[in-house]
Specification:
The protein contains four helices and seven strands; from the N terminus they run E-H-H-E-E-E-H-E-H-E-E. With 170 residues, the chain is an alpha+beta fold.
């Protein structure tokens, strides 16, 4: 089986993807110890991601390999934040998706969407143990923050980043 990125398809989420995306989130988050209180795994939108991201300035994208959804990520206005600030949300990939370039392709797609939607800053929350994700965020220009932004309710996260979307893409 080829591992080239040509076998990957990135597209907007559809209602038929909801169960697969919810399963990915509920599978991957515990892998990193993110299954207790204060983590996105408990957000009500997890079961109906296509509906949650159908509103203006919201976008969620999935990555397929051989017709199977193996990851996803989204952009939405930051809860409790300035209207010019968005949040990268629920970017998770099954182990079989890792190392294929899917993360970078997905992140770039989300950032393009954020710029198109008129956001000036992209915020994200993550965990210290998600080292590969943090390398990607830094490589694409995200800078670490000392404290969280907005009111996401994800008090379990311990690393925060932001990217100035008005600067040229990395």
């Amino acid at each position: 089986m080829s591992t080239s990125t040509e076998t990957l398809v990135l597209r907007p989420i559809e209602p038929r993807d909801d169960a697969a995306v919810a399963s990915i989130i509920r599978t991957v988050m515990p892998e990193f110890g993110a299954d207790g209180p204060g983590f996105a795994i408990h957000d009500p939108e997890v079961s109906t991601m296509s509906a949650a991201y159908s509103r203006p300035r919201h976008g969620y994208f999935v990555v397929e390999r051989n017709g199977r959804v193996i990851g996803g990520a989204g952009i939405a206005p930051l809860d409790g934040g300035d209207p010019g600030v968005c949040e990268l949300r629920k970017m998770y990939f099954l182990p079989e998706a890792r190392g294929l370039g899917a993360g970078e392709r997905m992140l770039r797609r989300c950032l393009d969407f954020a710029r198109e939607a008129g956001f000036r800053l992209c915020y994200l929350e993550t965990l210290a143990g998600m080292k590969q994700a943090q390398k990607l965020y830094r490589r694409l220009g995200f800078e670490p923050l000392c404290a969280p932004m907005g009111k996401t309710g994800h008090f379990g996260c311990d690393n925060w980043y932001a990217l100035d979307l008005t600067k040229p893409a990395a």
